[in-house]
Amino acid sequence: MNRGKLQKNLNHRPWFRLIWQWQGSVIPSILPRVFACAVFALGITIVYDFGINIALPLESGLVPSIVLGLLLVFRTNTAYERYWEGRKLWGTLINTVRNLSRSLWITIKENDSSDRTQKIATLRLLVAFAIATKLHLRSEPVNEELARFLPEKCYDKLFTMNHPPLEIAFWIGDYLQQQYEKKCINSYQLTAMFKLLDTMVDVLGACERILKTPIPLAYTIHLQQLVLLYCLTLPFQFVDELGWMTAPIVALISFTILGIEAIGIEIENPFGYDANDLPLDQICYTMERNIEDLITLAPCVRYLKNNLSQ
Amino acid sequence: MNRGKLQKNLNHRPWFRLIWQWQGSVIPSILPRVFACAVFALGITIVYDFGINIALPLESGLVPSIVLGLLLVFRTNTAYERYWEGRKLWGTLINTVRNLSRSLWITIKENDSSDRTQKIATLRLLVAFAIATKLHLRSEPVNEELARFLPEKCYDKLFTMNHPPLEIAFWIGDYLQQQYEKKCINSYQLTAMFKLLDTMVDVLGACERILKTPIPLAYTIHLQQLVLLYCLTLPFQFVDELGWMTAPIVALISFTILGIEAIGIEIENPFGYDANDLPLDQICYTMERNIEDLITLAPCVRYLKNNLSQ
Amino acid sequence: MNRGKLQKNLNHRPWFRLIWQWQGSVIPSILPRVFACAVFALGITIVYDFGINIALPLESGLVPSIVLGLLLVFRTNTAYERYWEGRKLWGTLINTVRNLSRSLWITIKENDSSDRTQKIATLRLLVAFAIATKLHLRSEPVNEELARFLPEKCYDKLFTMNHPPLEIAFWIGDYLQQQYEKKCINSYQLTAMFKLLDTMVDVLGACERILKTPIPLAYTIHLQQLVLLYCLTLPFQFVDELGWMTAPIVALISFTILGIEAIGIEIENPFGYDANDLPLDQICYTMERNIEDLITLAPCVRYLKNNLSQ
Amino acid sequence: MNRGKLQKNLNHRPWFRLIWQWQGSVIPSILPRVFACAVFALGITIVYDFGINIALPLESGLVPSIVLGLLLVFRTNTAYERYWEGRKLWGTLINTVRNLSRSLWITIKENDSSDRTQKIATLRLLVAFAIATKLHLRSEPVNEELARFLPEKCYDKLFTMNHPPLEIAFWIGDYLQQQYEKKCINSYQLTAMFKLLDTMVDVLGACERILKTPIPLAYTIHLQQLVLLYCLTLPFQFVDELGWMTAPIVALISFTILGIEAIGIEIENPFGYDANDLPLDQICYTMERNIEDLITLAPCVRYLKNNLSQ
Amino acid sequence: MNRGKLQKNLNHRPWFRLIWQWQGSVIPSILPRVFACAVFALGITIVYDFGINIALPLESGLVPSIVLGLLLVFRTNTAYERYWEGRKLWGTLINTVRNLSRSLWITIKENDSSDRTQKIATLRLLVAFAIATKLHLRSEPVNEELARFLPEKCYDKLFTMNHPPLEIAFWIGDYLQQQYEKKCINSYQLTAMFKLLDTMVDVLGACERILKTPIPLAYTIHLQQLVLLYCLTLPFQFVDELGWMTAPIVALISFTILGIEAIGIEIENPFGYDANDLPLDQICYTMERNIEDLITLAPCVRYLKNNLSQ
């Protein structure tokens, strides 16, 4: 909405304010680990202070440093790509719902008023598909949110199914085939609408893919081992040079590293309720509003024609 | 237009001139922060000059440096990809408008002169769709710019709608379905044109996606925290070696870093009015000119045939 | 399923636990090589301890270090892209099976009860295609797992074929063409379903591509040579500074490097039985369950209509 | 053609020869700037030699170095992607011309010999489209090169148009629609050919996009400022260590950096006449030859049939 | 085939064996240059040993090092992408041949036995297309390999053509159009098969693109100049520290750098006969075997029906 203004704000005022923002940042989840690193560094400093030489000059390990740095960025990229792919999929879902609803509304002939009622019910099924997908991705059961968009009988039936969105897709397809058999649409229109319906099911499957296939475990384990090793060797490298400043500096550096990794974990599954997850509720609401707008639309051209022909 | 010349110029003369260009660069927006960093560095130098040893040798933090460097580039890449995707989408919109208008103009049969008037009105609706999308992306209300391309009644109606471009798409679809029912196009042609219309709505949805989904907040916050930490630790690292040169050098380095980040923020939303945003007005004007050209075209082959058959 | 919970867990508790996880990590496969590097480093240290100066200051080789680091990450990226492309392909297979089965179930007219039996048999052929593809990718022969989804005669025939999935695709196509000739579907529906069948065969071919085309041998050899050279030169660089700590430090660094390379090798072929491979058995089971759900479905809208029309 | 040989040559002999190649390299365009850097470095050395201590130890600026390095590579990647996308688009244009010409030649029925003449004229229009696109991308007016492929009347008309390729596309579409109305092709074939024509117009639009949308100005300015700053601070860093060798070393390093940037600028617009631009003339000639080959082809199968049926 | 086993082997035994593999590695082609670098380094060492101080401390050139490292990796990525795109294209060709042959075999009606003969001849033309493409990409003339898959008359004609694969595509298209005119397929099926044929020609064009458009010359030249400069400055940097060890160390480092570059050159054109090129012969053989399998197939469902209906 007023993003133009937001954009300007991001350029000027809130730069220094964003830095202190707690909500939506990963600080809460990494603070304990940063604190643990600092305590460990303090321990090392105390031991060193007693004269036990445990300082290690490790600067030569250039390749491990590059590898760790690049792996962290690989993690970041991969997680962000999953997030962005998820967003693209939901964008596709909005587009497809818009296109399919417009086609439905324009092309299916109405012979009596019950046809229009059925048409509107089917338009609402499109929104129901999106909401059922959202619930499915969040592992939530069918609930009241869906009730508004489904005929009562269908709503009851959904409770007994393993995979609610697929059943809704089945009902939409069934309605289209029925219209085709009633000669309200021709077979090309049927095929085109089936393709849009297929796209909706493709989006569902792709979201399930993102949800169910995290980054291979071997990467996650190896990366966490490297991060831990790195954070634990930091005090040995710094204690000689920095003395009592070792603990705060180690805290800063481990904050940098652990933060990156934590963000990766947080946005890897973008379908949840976190502050950084996709605004699925809002997207579903946009679809609903678009459909409701469409229903209130009396097409200007056709309207005239219909008035003339009647 | 005379880009060939521009290209040559870029190779030779303006290299040194571009460097001093103020307009379009991010210098205005980052100057206050660069200045703040320099002042801070000066403060540190003064404290150090009083003999208080606050110098810190931090060169060992190779991994945080790599991570910060790569994150800044990740930010740059991501922002540029959004910018370039936005440009691609508008390119797709131009192509689709060209293809759909050509198909409309060539294939829809005309029985009387009012058919042609209606056809021309629909071609202009395509431009209206692009302009309405532009206004929608800039959160601007329906305005005079659209009036030229819309029948008056439609223009008035648009003021009452939530989502003007979708309504225009609805009118175009409605016109096509009407032609199909009047047997002026067959159902294959209808389906093909509906697909092009779907593409136009897909472009609209994808632009909304870019606009409404910035980079996850957690990244933005973490990156800004790292940038701030880095700039604030710079004087401690340099004060011992550089003395009174610390402040200008810190200003230079923070200029480098803050500039990258500011560019990312600026081109992340490419649909605004900034010097670095997409030239949407010009793109819309290109569409308009192409449509007007098309309307003045009398197809050479068909023209002969029509003359013969009449 | 309860991934929402898992996600939360990943944020809090299991961070430190994951690090010690043996199963699924690459430690077992690289441990011998890490040990060999450590022993070599120990040997170098002993020789050095006898006063033979074999220390080499090699820090200047910045470009080889960058190249090795980036090559390792290139390896990682490439292997992960293959893994993720494999997952996407199986996701496409699920989607296509869902779409094709829904279309089949909704659109093919039934004249008598044997038609329905044949329809169900064909739906099961879709699952059989997926399972046959899985077995083919694992170089396993046709086995009992397939028997449930195939008519007995077809099952027997499969044993004599070079490429079982292609034959199953042929049977599905043959069934569709037969329905078309019996006028149970029209030619548009036939074409649309053939396209979905083509997609299934495309997935098969793309999986074979991933399986049969590893990263070019020249890269693999060059990378392994560089890794070996790097690990063998490490002790010479460290022995002067670290003394008897050389061996454990070299072990740590070679663990980092060899681990990355081993993960690359492990996930390059994602169709096997490793802990890090794709869960193909589970994916096939999902398809089976979706198909069985579909078969039990009595479409609500059509059901009414059929009752009325009968 | 004899690229196999070329490939071999690249492996063996010309390695050392390529290095000295002047034509096609960016040396001519960057030499003045490299020379300027060397002179500046010499000046600094002379000043230093007079005992004025202007040496600055700047090695600690790791992050700016990484950022500059990665930005240069970002520039390189982006420019190369534009180049490669341009090449892909022209590849698509060749493919589409081949497919559309083959379809035209095979499927359009001929009733009398004038039909064949018209068919051949339309095939040549496809080449004319490619050439007109080339001229349009180079901002050149319609010229003799096009005359061979266009009917005279069309050629004259093109001079009056803003956007020649679009008009040629219009004529091709018009011809197809005419054949459809003459029942020489059916509506499916018409739709399929229209889609190929749409692809050709998509290629045109995408090339215009590459041409008209350079990398955002803010990046170009910021990058050039960083490059200049870097080159100007080099002598201060080196003068203490290298003495009179400073100037040649600075020349070498600035040669590296400026070369990368100059290549980026040169291939960013790949449609010109530079040695590194796409061989558009040759690509157009390939299309022409393919079309002329096609025209001389008498299909073996059909030929028999026609002989039999006549 | 027994890749599962190979995979296991790669994990365990052959790790140390791969390192010594000569065939398929780039060692043969870079050995002379590595040797030249070592000799140059030896010369520098001898000169230095005579007391002439030519040592240069160059470690400060961080940006050129990063740029060279990243450029080498850019080269690697680009070359690998071309290789992988080539492999994908041939995968697409296999898939399309499978889909088109299955469609042909299932859908084209046979009225007499000559129809079947012609059908089989056309299936073999698909393999001929792949082989002709392979020969074309290797700049080899039409040869005996093609004779088996072509009618004699066509084979003779191919010798006179500039672009054999395009002519074969023309014959396939011609056959399909002929079947359509004989009412053996309907127009939807014709359109769908034409689209698959278009895909085959697209693959051909895309392979030509990869073959004929190497990385822009400016990059190749600049990269080789940088590599040479880097290798020649290495001895000056090392001679002070390493003494007589300079030559072997320089040889190792130049081996690393030159190897990367040589791999890039080798896999840039993946259609040749090198050990690292794509196994085109094997891919063509797979297609042949799939087609021959298909021909021997008597569809189980249809077979019954045909038996019943006859």
From TrEMBL, chains A, B, C, D, E:
Record carries keyword Translocase: no
Spans traversing the lipid bilayer: 30-48, 54-74, 217-236, 242-263
Keyword field: Cell membrane, Ion transport, Membrane, Transmembrane, Transmembrane helix, Transport
One Gene Ontology cellular component annotation held by this UniProt entry: plasma membrane
Primary localization: membrane
GO MF, any single term: chloride channel activity
Localisation per UniProt entry: Cell membrane
Membrane disposition: Multi-pass membrane protein
PANTHER family: UPF0187 PROTEIN YNEE, VOLTAGE-DEPENDENT ANION CHANNEL-FORMING PROTEIN YNEE
Family stated for the protein in its record: Belongs to the anion channel-forming bestrophin (TC 1.A.46) family.
Protein name: Uncharacterized protein
Lineage of origin: Bacteria, Bacillati, Cyanobacteriota, Cyanophyceae, Oscillatoriophycideae
